[in-house]
Amino acid sequence: MDLPPVPAAVATLTAGVGPRGAVALAAAYSRLEDLDDWDDPDHVDEETGRVADLLKEAEANGVAEDETAELWWYVEHLRSCAAENRQYQEEMAAYVAEHGTTPRGRLDAKLRRARELYEAGDRAAALALFREVAEISPWDSEFSGCLDRIDTGWCRLLHDAAHVGGPAAARKIWQEARAHYRAAKFPITPHAWPLVELLLGTGVPDLVEVVVREWIEAAEENGKADVPVTEDEQRIFELALAEIERSRELPSSG
């Protein structure tokens, strides 16, 4: 949440006019600039208390309430965030006391164990663990903040299906993952290029094309005019385009 614009009284102060009310308002604004929604709750409570005192002083010394209204609103917003953060921290502390780690830590442990099993040749056990992580709901569970880990589970299942089961198996996993994500997109943007590279040469150029297209769309929505943006992404992009073009030429060559 962004801090409201600089109040007119503060702008007046910077222009060389410095009544006591404007000084107090400027000090309040300065303190708010240093705060963030996710700062330590105790720090936020302490600082917003000081800001509240400064806003009262500003109003008592001639600053109109319409000059302070947005800052009062922002103070209450920060206090509300602090209360939510404090509750979250308390709940997470209780969770760690019960499970020995955070929800993310639990998923990391399962993914790490699954990778170890896969590398050791126990594919069935590894895939069972990858699927256990993948099928966790990213929306309405204790793991709601762990979509990246859930996404990793699906990526590993898709990678295995493409390389071991073949195109049909890969497309089946793909459909499962897309359905599981509801309105969200699989894969998440940070996993797009690594997944494309893993799928190259496995007979699923249609899936490669979807991932590339959606990554570019997401990048453009975020204001990146030139995509891909790194040399490695450009390398994968060129390989992906070549594979997509070859797949389009196949029907006419037969």
Present the secondary structure layout:
Elements: H1 8-14, H2 20-33, H3 41-60, H4 65-99, H5 103-119, H6 123-134, H7 147-165, H8 167-180, H9 192-199, H10 205-221, H11 231-253
Q: Can you describe this structure?
A:
The chain is mostly helical and about 250 residues long. It has eleven helices and no strands. The longest helix has about 35 residues, at about 65-100. The chain is elongated and about 80 Å long.
Summarize the structure.
This is Tetratricopeptide repeat protein. It comes from Amycolatopsis rhizosphaerae. This protein has three domains: 8-99; 101-183, no CATH class; 187-254, no CATH class.
List keywords for this structure.
73% helix, mainly alpha, 11 helices, 254 residues, Tetratricopeptide repeat protein, single chain
* Uncertain runs: none
Total number of β-strand segments? 0
Largest sheet: none
Strand content: under 5%
- Helix and strand string, N-terminal first? HHHHHHHHHHH
Which geometry do the CA atoms define?
A: elongated
Mean pLDDT: 88
Measured as a percent range, the helix fraction is over 70%
How far is the N terminus from the C terminus? 58 Å
Number of helical regions: 11
Radius of gyration: 26 Å
What is the count of structural domains? 3
Structural class: mainly alpha
